[in-house]
Amino acid sequence: MRTNIVGALCAVAVIASANAAVKEQPVTYTDGETTMKGFLVYDDASQAKRPGIVMVPEWWGITDHIHNEARKFAQQGYAAFIADMYGDGKTADNPKDAGALSGSVMKNPKVMEQRFNAAWQELAKQASVNPGRIGAVGYCFGGAVVLNMARAGADLAAVAGFHASLGLNTPAPAPGAVKAKILILNGADDPFVKREQYDALKKDFDAAKADYRIIEYPGAVHAFTNPEATELGKKFNLPLRYDAKADQEAKAEAAKFFAANLQK
Q1: Residue 222: phi, psi to the nearest 5?
Q2: Among 45, 84, 159, 192, which residue has the fewest nearby CB atoms (within 10 Å)?
Q3: Domain Dienelactone hydrolase spans what residues (predicted)?
Q4: CA 237 to chain centroid
Q5: Within the chain, where are the H helices?
Q6: For 25-263, CATH number?
Q7: With 90 as the cut, is the pLDDT of residue 24 above it?
Q8: What pLDDT does 16 receive?
Q9: How far is 110 from 170, CA to CA, in rounded Å?
Q10: How far apart are CA 240 and CA 63, in angstroms?
């Protein structure tokens, strides 16, 4: 009898585990009068409040790559919110349109901040999220966005940028103004990021007494975490290339970074 009970309990546990899964929930929210279409991604195996991460995509907009990245963060115990930076879920399939969309955000820091903050607020109010433990991660264009938000003193515990663009458009932060700990994970051979941009970033963060770390991966270029990057690079004659080794190493660094600063 006892064996049968144990077996039944094990079967229930297996079924419960099988039913628990990473959920992707479309979320419509607003920035003023602009309709935004993001996604909340989380593992419903846990009912506890969990840390949140605002995710800002590459200049293409919300693609399969950012969905895959969000699922990985959900599996690590976070609620990931994929931010819509362009409104109405707009995406681009070519560099001209992607540049126009990303430029429309970056040329106006107020728009950039409003779009990011709208996503932050939407994530913070989710029942499954601990609003006191929210970080951000960005890719390429998105990396510039999250670094700008850190410079602007956003209420973030931790910010990471993968192959982050460093064309930053917010004023140099005052001493003590940067709340977030910062991790920049870039390709050492990324032609889109100039050495003088690193120098300016370091100068500003040092003067602000910010807690930051920069890791550059030898041989890696732009978009090295995106498995679609190599094909996109060939298609549009751009220096984009997936790098499995750099991707794995950078993801391991980011996992340690967020665990130390969001899950403590």
Answers
A1: -70, 145
A2: 45
A3: 41-260
A4: 26
A5: 2-19, 64-75, 95-106, 109-124, 141-151, 195-207, 229-236, 244-262
A6: 3.40.50.1820
A7: yes
A8: 38
A9: 9
A10: 16
From CA 70, how far away is CA 54, in angstroms rounded?
Answer: 10
pLDDT band at 9 (very low <50, low <70, confident <90, very high): very low
Q: Full-prediction pTM beyond 0.90? A: yes
Say which range, 41-50, 91-100, 147-156, has the weakest mean pLDDT.
41-50
**CA–CA distance, 102 with 17 (Å, rounded to integer):** 41
Return d(Cα 144, Cα 162) in angstroms, integer. 10
In the DSSP assignment, the letter for residue 222 is B
Distance CA 2, CA 245 (A): 50
Given a cut of 70, whether residue 13 has pLDDT beyond it is no
Paired tokens of 216: 């550059």
| Spatial contact of 71 and 41, defined as CB atoms under 8 Å apart | yes
Q: Specify whether the CB–CB gap between 93 and 236 falls below 8 A.
A: no
| Residue with token string 């540049």 | 99
DSSP string, 52-114: EEEEE--TT-S-HHHHHHHHHHHHTT-EEEE--SSSTT---SSHHHHHHHHHHHHT-HHHHHH
Provide the 8-state DSSP code for 166.
Answer: -
Pairwise CA distance, residues 39 & 156, whole Å: 19
Q: Measured between alpha carbons, how far is residue 245 from residues 113, 204, 224 in Å? A: 33, 31, 9
> pLDDT of 186-210, one tens digit each?
999 999 999 999 999 999 999 999 9
**pLDDT score of 6:** 41
Band of residue 20 on the pLDDT scale cut at 50, 70, 90: low
Is 70 exceeded by the pLDDT of residue 257?
Answer: yes
